[in-house]
Design goal:
Distance between the termini: 85 Å
Strand order of the largest sheet: 1-2-4-3
Radius of gyration: 35 Å
Strand content: 15-25%
Shape: elongated
Largest sheet: 4 strands, antiparallel
Number of helices: 4
Structural class: alpha+beta
């Protein structure tokens, strides 16, 4: 059993001091959280500011190009629209991967089964790696020939060592082009 021998006045003073210390710690904790949140938003703010200035510069350039032509006429509008299309096409992909896959599978012989397709794109060039198996060597060669005839595919690399077997031929074909 515990007995509290402190007088009531001292108890009240201790409780007030305890609450004051607790509020002080909470205040500093919340201040630290707010400071960390503020500092974490700085990189995003800088990135948005840079993008905004780039967008303003591009808009001014387009306005100057449009103003250099006969402003207010249809010819200037066509010229300005053409410049905007050029800006948008700079980042556009020329072929959608699903279109490439449908073109790839159009000429696939029934004896060829595809297990894996990897699509890579960098520096304006695309690369497809197709792996699978063919029932016969002739099916695989027919598949290679069909791919070579298809428009966006420029180079088809089928290693010669794969053609050593007559039946149940496992293959990996590397296809590259501007897609």
């Amino acid at each position: 059993m515990y007995y509290n021998v402190l007088p009531q006045e001292v108890k009240k003073t201790l409780k007030k001091e305890y609450k004051l210390r607790l509020l002080t710690v909470l205040f500093f904790g919340l201040t630290a959280v707010a400071l960390i949140a503020f500092v974490s938003f700085i990189p995003s703010y800088i990135a948005v500011s840079i993008k905004e200035s780039q967008a303003k510069t591009a808009a001014e350039t387009l306005n100057q190009l449009g103003g250099a032509q006969n402003s207010g006429t249809t010819g200037a509008d066509v010229f300005l629209t053409g410049e905007e299309i050029k800006l948008l096409q700079a980042n556009a992909v020329s072929h959608v991967p699903s279109d490439l896959l449908s073109k790839l599978l159009e000429g696939k012989p029934t004896g060829v089964s595809i297990d894996n397709i990897v699509y890579e794109f960098s520096n304006g060039k695309g690369k497809l790696t197709v792996s699978g198996s063919a029932g016969t060597r002739d099916d695989l060669l027919l598949f290679r020939d069909q791919i070579q005839k298809t428009a966006p595919f420029e180079k088809v690399n089928l290693p010669v060592a794969i053609l050593a077997k007559d039946t149940n031929v496992s293959f990996s074909i590397a296809i590259s082009g501007s897609f």
